[in-house]
Amino acid sequence: MMEELSAVPWAVIAPLLVVQFILVIVALVDLRKIHATNGPKILWVFIILFVSLFGPIAYFIVGRKQS
Question: 59 and which of 13, 25, 45, 63 could share a cystine (Cβ 3.0–4.6 Å)?
Answer without folding.
Answer: 63
